[in-house]
Design brief:
405 residues, alpha/beta, Aspartate Aminotransferase, domain 1, Aspartate Aminotransferase, domain 2, 7-stranded mixed β-sheet, 4-stranded antiparallel β-sheet, 13 helices, binds pyridoxal-5'-phosphate
């Protein structure tokens, strides 16, 4: 008799964005005259830049001509794109990464979710709390998480590293042995970063404990401060202990186009086995590559025009983030993130519960954000706003919040 993977039954339903959507639609039905401003979802709103669109059009035409048509491409990505990544994202920052250490994919979500397949089911997983939920849920599916405890809102085999105002949003090194450590900086949801010296502690920990760091830098393009590393490989020793995930989603507006990449350095070995070889085997078995047109689109991000245009879009969101940060500070809020990140993480006033603050913002000033508790138990009492809205709406939202009691 066929049996299902029972681990799926342990997954906690994610009510976060569905509950947000339900509350917003109920409010709008009751108050059709009120303009609701949405600063909740982590999706870009500016269109793909012209240099990228042009490149896609050209690539589409190539696909329609016999002499330039392309069938299956290399599963790891075309050389033209991998070479640009090596040059612009790494060499320019003094990091030496080889072309065959880059694996192009259709998203950092898939890659951060799939990577755990390479590791034994008894490895101990460490995640931050709050966290981007993919890291947790994919380990629940694989049977590494243990049992869910209602009382704590946590799985009993996962090591949760709380990040909060008290520890300056820097996760503390675990006291127990952990094997796989997920780090995401600039962080979703808190918008905070780790500087080089802090990241070095994690690299040393991983070396001492024979652990691996899974470093998600999907928001790397938002970094403005000098001493914040864009890549974990800017920190000495990282190539022996870390895999890095990058995405074109937030950096170049590719959330609907889909392109990302993962770096698996050849130095990275577990039990004498190169993880680069394992990931290559995994990808060539289960993945048939990103479309030619999309990879030409990603390549165009690195052209002179592409870089200029993408930078303008990032600067637009960065200005929004500043407007939100300044607006909240002026209104008396305690605010984190939003400097090297499109996310602003605020402390709810008077220790209000995250969902109570959500209701208050929606009802009193018709603004939608995301309750911090939706990202993990330590997110309780916090709230996330994003800089991906329009300038006009961002400014109006801050004016409304200033007037709120
Ligand atoms: N990693 C983090 C931390 C994210 O916040 C997101 C998207 O919100 C992703 C990865 C997903 O990226 P992609 O669109 O490349 O799948």
């Amino acid at each position: 008799m066929v049996k299902i993977n029972k681990n799926y039954l342990k997954l906690q339903d994610s009510y976060l964005f569905s509950t947000v959507a339900k509350k917003v639609s109920e409010f709008s039905e009751k108050n059709p005259d009120k303009k609701v401003i949405k600063l909740g979802i982590g999706d870009v709103t500016l269109p793909i830049v012209p240099a990228v669109v042009e490149s896609m059009k050209k690539a589409t035409d190539e696909m329609g001509r016999k002499e330039s048509f392309k069938g299956y491409g290399p599963e790891q990505g075309y050389d033209f794109l991998r070479e640009k990544i090596v040059e612009y994202d790494y060499k320019r920052r003094g990091v030496n990464i080889e072309k065959d250490e880059i694996f192009v994919s259709d998203g950092a979500k898939c890659d951060t979710g799939n990577i755990q397949e390479l590791f034994d089911e008894n490895n101990v997983i460490a995640i931050t709390d709050p966290v981007y939920p993919v890291y947790l849920d994919t380990n629940v599916m694989a049977g590494r998480a243990g049992e869910y405890e209602e009382r704590t809102g946590k799985f009993n085999k996962i090591v949760y590293m709380s990040v909060n105002a008290e520890n300056n949003f820097e996760p503390e090194l675990p006291k127990e042995q952990v094997d796989l450590i997920y780090l995401c900086f600039p962080n979703n949801p808190t918008g905070t970063v780790l500087k080089k010296a802090e990241l070095k502690k994690w690299i040393d920990y991983a070396k001492d404990n024979k652990a691996i760091i899974l470093f998600d830098s999907a928001y790397e393009r938002f970094i403005v401060e000098d001493d914040v590393p864009h890549s974990i490989y800017e920190v000495e020793g990282a190539k022996e202990v870390a895999i890095e995930f990058r995405s074109f989603s937030k950096t170049a507006g590719f959330t609907g186009l889909r392109c990302a990449y993962t770096v698996v350095p050849k130095e990275l070995q577990v039990e004498g086995i190169q993880l680069n070889k394992l990931w290559n085997r995994r990808q060539t078995t289960k993945f048939n590559g990103v479309s030619y047109v999309t990879q030409r689109a990603a390549e165009a991000v690195y052209s002179e025009e592409g870089q200029k245009q993408v930078k303008e879009n990032i600067e637009y969101y960065q200005e929004n983030a500043k407007i939100i940060r300044d607006g909240l500070v002026n209104a008396g809020y305690t605010v984190y993130g939003g400097i090297n990140s499109p996310y602003i993480w605020l402390k709810t006033p008077n220790n209000m519960k995250s969902w109570d603050f959500f209701d208050k913002l929606l009802n009193d000033v018709n603004i939608v954000g995301t309750p911090g508790s939706g990202f993990g138990p330590s997110g309780e009492g916090y709230f996330r706003l994003t800089a991906f809205g329009s300038r006009e709406n961002t400014i109006e939202a801050m004016e409304r919040i200033k007037k709120m009691n």
